[in-house]
Amino acid sequence: MKKVGILTGGGDCPGLNATIRGVVRKCIVDYDYKMYGILEGWRGLIDGKVKELDLWSVSGILPKGGTIIGTSRTNPFGKDNSGDPEKILDNIKKLGLDAIVSIGGEDTQGVAYQLFKMGVNVVSIPKTIDNDLMGTDYTFGFDTAVNVATEAIDRLHTTAESHNRVMVVEVMGRHAGWIAMFSGIAGGADVILIPEKPVDIDDVCDILKKRHERGKRFSIVVVSEGIKINFENKEEEDFILKDAKTDAFGHVTLGGVGPLLAKMIEKRTGFESRCTVLGHILRGGAPTAFDRILSTRFGIAASELIHKGEFGKMVALQGNKIVALDLKDVSKNIKTVDDYWYNIAKVFFG
Ligand code: F6P
């Protein structure tokens, strides 16, 4: 009987439990494998912390947000040496794991590829609300985040209109503007600001002024946390980055550009402005039906790859097909928003 470990790495997102359920059900029901949850991402393999996952342990988790096996941003190949990949190899041997299913974003895929090169039988599954993974049209978690943000924008529309205000909505997404772009289009935003398209604050204010000139007395500005704007002075820039810590993968903690942007808009246009930062609300709660189905398909496809002995692969969605890609090709760059999307959004600016 084969033993398979499954882990969730990086930031959580809706659909992780649905994926775990898919893998565990397929591997137990169809292949009679013994399944283990590796606790808190790669940290669990470094410390050798696992728990057995039987059919009961994955029952009822399909609609649940978060991850029943925990997650962390542990980097076994981090510069601080806290990870020591050799410990991972030792523990895989001690636990008798024949294969690992790693569910994660760009960083988790990178670690999975490193371990694969060291001889570990890995199959990966792409997740992240940011939708910034190469090779897959969508990652699960993204659709839920977009729906939550869209609902928030709809709600902000009515209060913005009542008070004649500019409402700035800050969403996550790191260095890719997918959440801002999709929720902005779906929510009818008047301006969408994304990292891929640096803008001048004066140009943003001009769009809003023109809109108000033609009789609209409120506006919705959707801003992605990773945007680059020209700051009015150095203190403002420092304000955003002052507490910025980096994680084990060297990513700076983002968030906070929205409130500053609202102040800058108010100062330059005279329009009363407010900001709502959606932050981790986008990562919590139940996955949408789309994400539940995608997670389930990914879980089944990853299990099939393990059964066929095809390792070093990441499952991905291309069109409506689930495909298997080489990990070495997906962990190189992130997928960012292209002009096709920007040109659609732009039609509705102002
Ligand atoms: O990658 C997912 C994400 O939610 C990003 O959009 C965001 O910048 C980051 O994680 C936040 O990370 P943390 O939960 O560690 O603050």
Describe the protein's architecture and organization:
- The chain has 350 residues and is of the alpha/beta class.
- It has two domains: 3-140 and 287-330, Rossmann fold; 143-284, Rossmann fold.
- It contains twelve helices and eleven strands.
- The chain has helices at residues 16-30, 42-47, 85-95, 106-117, 142-163, 178-187, 201-213, 234-241, 257-269, 289-308, 327-330, 339-346, and strands spanning 3-8, 34-38, 50-52, 99-104, 122-126, 166-171, 191-193, 219-224, 273-277, 313-318, 321-326.
- Strands 3-2-1-4-5-10-11 form a seven-stranded mixed β-sheet, with helices on both faces.
- Strand 4 (99-104), helix 4 (106-117) and strand 5 form a beta-alpha-beta unit.
- Helix 1 packs parallel to helix 10 and helix 7 crosses helix 9 (257-269).
- It is elongated, with a radius of gyration of 22 Å.
- It binds 6-O-phosphono-beta-D-fructofuranose.
- 6-O-phosphono-beta-D-fructofuranose binds at residues 11, 105, 128-130, 172-174, 225, 253-254, 283.
Total count of domains: 2
Give the radius of gyration: 22 Å
Q: What is the molecular shape?
A: elongated
CATH architecture descriptor name of the largest domain:
3-Layer(aba) Sandwich
Structural class: alpha/beta
The unreliable regions are none
Q: Could you tell me the strand content as a percent range?
A: 15-25%
Give the oligomer, counting copies of the same chain as homo and different chains as hetero.
Answer: single chain
Q: How far apart lie the N and C ends?
A: 62 Å
Order of helices and strands: EHEHEHEHEHEHEHEHHEHEEHH
Report helical residue fraction: 40-55%
Bound compounds? 6-O-phosphono-beta-D-fructofuranose
Main β-sheet, in a few words? 7 strands, mixed
| Number of DSSP-assigned strands | 11
Number of helices: 12
> Strands of the biggest beta sheet: in what spatial order?
3-2-1-4-5-10-11
Q: What is the level 1 CATH name of the largest domain?
A: Alpha Beta
Q: If you average the pLDDT, what whole number results?
A: 94
Say what the CATH topology of the largest domain is: Rossmann fold
